[in-house]
Amino acid sequence: MKSNIKNTDSARSKILTIPNMLSFFRLCLIPVFMWLYCVEKNYIWTGIILIVSGLTDTVDGFVARHFNMVSDLGKILDPIADKMTQAAMLFCLLTRFPLMILPLGLMVLKEFFMGVTGLLVIQKTGKVFGAEWHGKVSTWLLYIMMILHVFWFNIPDTVSKVLIGVCVVMMAISLVLYGRHNLKALGQEEKNTEG
């Protein structure tokens, strides 16, 4: 029993794991696809790199869970890589699609709120929460929307608005659910402290 606990603790504290290296790799891809989209105007390669980034995100989560490589660093690094990739791509798309300001603005609001409440949860409980299902759905919808806008150069305005609208709605739902989860954790900790 003690050896299992030690193995879990050591896995959580590991830094050089495959999932963490994949997250770092995703961070390295950001300047590449920004240069391809904004400078080279090479939308095909931008889309390919964005797909690779999304796939590595899925792979690192799978590897972390199935090969006991979940780490506290990974729980922080993975969402940072996700959000920076998404924000960078939305910023690129904003140069052609003004409505991209909506998911970009909501993302900034969501991440600020989640960052503040998440840090309070870590400070008060010592726990680092991983991604929930709604966060994953929101991420995948966002990737699909961005990839379609990259590859489909002359995307109809109505289709573009619908895709952006679906993403914004799911991001708002995710913000509410994550916010409720973090506030509940903080409230529970205060009750335990008072008790």
Describe this structure in words.
It is a single chain. The protein is mostly helical and 195 residues long. Helices cover 83% and strands 0% of the residues. It is built from seven helices and no strands. The chain starts with a helix and ends with a helix.
Number of strands: 0
Oligomer designation: single chain
The overall pLDDT average reads 85
List unreliable stretches of 5+ residues. 1-9
Largest sheet: none
- Radius of gyration (CA) equals 18 Å
* Percentage of residues in strands: under 5%
Q: How many DSSP H or I helices?
A: 7
Shape: globular
Order of SSEs, N→C? HHHHHHH
Helix content: over 70%
Helices and strands: which structural class?
A: mainly alpha
